[in-house]
Amino acid sequence: MSKNGEHMTQETHSQGVSRRGFLAGMMAAGAVAAAGMAGCSPQTPQEAASSAAADGSVSDAAASTSMQTTDPAKAVWPVVEEVTVGSAGEGKIAFVAEPISADEIVATHDVDVVVCGLGPAGDAAALSCAEHGLKTVAVEKQTRGNYNSATIGGTNSELHKFWGMEYDTQEWMSDAMIGCSFQADMTLYQHYLENNGEAVDWYISHFDNQDFNDYPLTFAAGDFPDFREQYDPTALSRSWNTSLNLPYAPGDLADILAGFLTDAGVELRFETPACQLVTDESGKVTGVIVKSADGYEQYNCAKGVVLATGGYEFNEQMLKERCRPRGVPGAWLTGAFGNTGDGLQMGIAIGAAEDEFPQPIMLDPEQLMPFVRVNNLGKRFTPEYDPYGQLAMAIQYQPGTYDFYIVDSALDTKIDKIWTPSSSCYGPKEVWIAAAQSENAFKADTLEELAEQMGVDPDTFVETIEHWNEMCAAGEDTDFDMPGSMMMTIDTPPYYATKEFADGLCTAGGLLVNTDCQVLKVDRQPIEGLYAAGIVSGGMFYNTYPHNLNCLSHTRNCLMGYTIGKVLGTK
């Protein structure tokens, strides 16, 4: 019996080559010019094919004219300027590339299903499998499960109907396709639209609080309790009013769900990460090897193995391989310390296909309010009232991958101009005022002095702010079409500027799947016995996560887990 097929060697954080050293090597070899500068000679498809190695990589001779490779470890990212690629931390990788021999196995178990990972997707999958009568084990790398947000969304659940919400799903789908640059599987979005309500209803039915009044629409959870429009009409990209708040603290949800799982008969095993998939001669996944305190244990799974191991935020090497340098955030907002790409690597090792590069990262700006932004040239660069993912991408595009947001001392009297349903739901005004005027901000009595502190050209910065104030007086943003009613002047000293990077929530690229959540091979045929749910699965996002489709990720987690139980329960 084969335990794993062809695999990649996973380099650890300490083995990674610095980008500075790598670029120096490229320049020494003349590769930068050949990788895309003027003067490189074209290569015919026949020449490219003949220069490709048998393992899918590109030979040295072809490196000067081709950058294609099927080996992520050989991925090359030419850059305009060198930027830092950093992970959320150095996590402990559980994936084992080399075959684990039979004599290393200290225990063997026969079950129907093993779910690997206990975040929102793994919880939903384990619960659904158990409720469909399957003998289910859930293994988790950490000491407990992980939840980052107490929200769920969708378009057609009973909760949405309770709040009187109806959505134009054709417009929603249009926004989804634009958000992924049309590089996604539309059938996955269609499946989502058709089935999310059933999954959300099932999920919500488990909680002890069944008073729908306690599950408000997120956009109506702040100072606009009666907001019922299907999307925020003032945003540059429609920000859909689809998210719902759960009446529980995010930190409590992991334990609440663990209780649901235990009641349903799921065996929970913490500090027991999945390491390697087991396959038979046909390539079917028949089990998974985990590592407990006693050593390696093998689960033989009659129905299947579910990968719900999350992303790879804590694996710097995988970030360098799969994400364009400018797409990796300056800071991370995640406590999912076990997310080192284990499930993704386990799938790839047996022939699974993954999203092509660059893989997306779910991003937020550090400041969620639409304050005026300027880059380090002193110039404004975007309509600030973008959905968060788009605003974060705009920030990362700037020189140095950062910007400054600017306010004045009268912010407390002006902030009502930008106070909308999609801003007020994230905290009271005082929080955002304090953040913009904090001790971390540059502070000056003149714009020229502020520019000097920021390190930007004073003349350009002053011209930018004066032009902004003129547009405020006219009530029209002739540069980027910020809604005129939301434009706040910057004219009351002292002035404040805060340096801002994008924040990362999680990676959002993974293994290709179909609507049954079966993991697919390169030829798009399913790998029998292998399923994936949550952000270890791919096929829906490209370049960035579409924040304007509010709570799509959490609802997708729920739907995929629910779907897997239905599929395996009828096999």
Structure in words:
- The structure is a single chain.
- The chain is of the alpha/beta class and 571 residues long.
- Helix content is 30%, strand content 17%.
- The strands form 5 sheets. Strands 1, 2, 7, 8, 9, 10, 18 and 19 form an 8-stranded mixed β-sheet that branches. It has a 4-stranded antiparallel β-sheet with strand order 13-14-16-15, with helices on one face. It has a 3-stranded mixed β-sheet with strand order 11-17-12.
- Strand 8 and strand 9 form a beta hairpin.
- Helix 5 packs parallel to helix 18, helix 7 crosses helix 8 and helix 16 crosses helix 17.
- It is globular.
- The N terminus is likely disordered.
What topology emerges from the helices and strands here?
Layout: H1 19-29, H2 31-34, H3 45-51, H4 60-63, E1 105-116, H5 120-131, E2 136-139, E3 151-152, H6 158-162, H7 169-179, H8 186-204, E4 231-232, E5 239-240, E6 244-245, H9 250-264, E7 267-269, E8 274-279, E9 285-292, E10 295-307, H10 316-322, E11 331-332, H11 342-349, E12 361-365, E13 372-374, H12 388-397, E14 403-408, H13 411-414, H14 421-424, H15 429-436, E15 442-444, H16 447-454, H17 458-474, E16 495-500, E17 502-507, E18 518-520, E19 526-532, H18 552-569
Parallel strand pairs: 1-2, 1-10, 2-7, 10-19, 11-17
Antiparallel strand pairs: 3-6, 4-5, 8-9, 9-10, 12-17, 13-14, 14-16, 15-16, 18-19
Helix pairs in contact: 5-9, 5-18, 7-8, 8-18, 16-17
